[in-house]
Amino acid sequence: MRFDSTLGLEDRRGPVALTLKTILYAAIVIVFLGPLAGLLVNAFGTVPDPTRFSLPTGFSLDNFARAGERKVYLYLLNSFVVVGFGLLLQMLVSVFAAYALARKRFRGMAFVLILMLVTMMIPEEVIILPLAAVLGDLPVFGTNLLGTYAGMILPVGAWGFSILVMTEFMKEVPVELEEAARIDGAGELRTFFTIILPLCRPALGVIGVFGFTMIWDQYVLPLIVATESDQWTLPIALRSLRSDEEVGIGVLLAASLLALLPSIIAFLAFQRQFMRGLTSGAIKG
Predict the structure, then answer these.
(1) How far apart are CA 125 and CA 131, in angstroms?
(2) Those residues with Cβ within 8 angstroms of residue 208's Cβ, 6 or more apart along the chain or in another chain
(3) What is the pLDDT along the chain (285 residues), one digit of tens a residue?
(4) Single pTM value for the model
(5) What is the number of other CB atoms lying within 10 angstroms of the CB of residue 215?
């Protein structure tokens, strides 16, 4: 889709129209790429006054070295641990829950779907105290998960958005494929892993990207789980660095760049499946 046709400028001709298009496109580039360019330049540059945002005078990796002194790389490692195991658990829960909702029929299925929608509409701030109480004394097991990685990982293991996306996608998989596999002697698990799951790769890309972003950006959950500063994830560390007057703007921007890169890499890694997943519904419709 072209921007000029979307904005109604495709049929405009002449120097005036060309000038307006150039100004408009330049403004769009500045708005969207300007902050990113400023982040890159100041993260890798040296500034005369590190406490203020100013133009850098040269290239340097000093900001990243000073970020390491502030344990930013430890917080980055904590974030990778949480998002790695959390995303794996979330995708496992999503595919199995979606298979049950898409292929099985049981009482209360509509209530389960409504309940998942409700959980997506509740702000995280509303459940801070109940969540802290549950993690402090896990029902049945009686275990205290505060101050542990498990306390940050288990609550993100089930996400209504991922389950609903996978459910709707699995409903589009022809039932005849499963019936043919069962006729050939394949069991339910083998049918699931060899027939259904490979056909759901676009949906896996979608929930992978959104799930990674959701877990990576978690702030409230690590805040209530972490009992020591060494257990912080990067979003909490950024807030701490921002409030520290001794930390320069360059160190803060370097840490922000480290927080931004994994999301970009995750999108590039799942890009093909992500775009196929977003467009498959429109093609089938």
Answers:
(1) 10
(2) 87, 91, 266, 270, 273, 274
(3) 454 555 555 555 667 777 887 888 888 888 877 777 777 777 777 665 555 555 666 677 788 888 888 888 999 999 999 999 999 999 999 999 999 888 888 787 888 888 888 888 888 888 888 888 888 888 878 788 998 999 999 999 988 899 988 998 888 888 888 888 888 888 888 888 888 888 888 888 889 889 999 999 898 899 899 888 888 999 998 888 877 777 777 788 888 888 888 888 888 877 776 676 666 554 444
(4) 0.80
(5) 25
Tokens of 230: 């060494």
Q: Which residues contact 166 (CB under 8 A, 6 or more apart)?
A: 94, 95, 97, 98, 102, 200, 203, 204, 207
Length of the chain equals 285
Interatomic CA distance for residues 122 and 204, integer angstroms: 25
Q: Which residue has the tokens 């344990």?
A: 71
Q: Which position has the token pair 């027939």?
A: 195
